[in-house]
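For the sake of clarity, the format in which proteins appear in this thesis is described at this point. The fold follows as a row of integers, each naming the local backbone shape at the matching residue. One such record is shown here in full, so that the layout can be seen directly:
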Amino acid sequence: MMSHTFIRNGFIASGLVNILAVLLLSRGFTNAVIPETDPVVMSNFGLLMIAVWGLVFLAVATRYQYVKWAVGAFVVEKLVYAVVWFRWITTHDVAAVYARDLFAGVFYSVYGFNDFLFFLFFAAVFYQLHQKDAKSLSSG
């Protein structure tokens, strides 16, 4: 069982990674290579929405236990990004992205792996919350 502190810090880490990675690697939304490389998913609007998700993760960090279904939505969100990245990374040449821009290359190398790790984290939190609810229903 994960402790409250560990879970809270996981939410904070996820939020900060979303926000800081987008801001740093996109150079404050001025890096044209990221949106040009995948204009559907990683447009500047898409990058902004990733940062907004980060704000949501931070907002629930201390209250996650009261929003189990929001945590379930986080599981789905992270899984979607991980799957989209896996499909992208297996059908594109990331070296070509690095050749155009180091920051964009780093972004495309790691974003989906990061999302997969946080998918696992959010899934474990959701499972723990679900087990707690099931236990309290069966004992009450």
Summary: The CA atoms of residues 77 and 119 lie 8 Å apart. The mean pLDDT is 96. The radius of gyration is 17 Å. The first helix runs from residue 4 to 25.
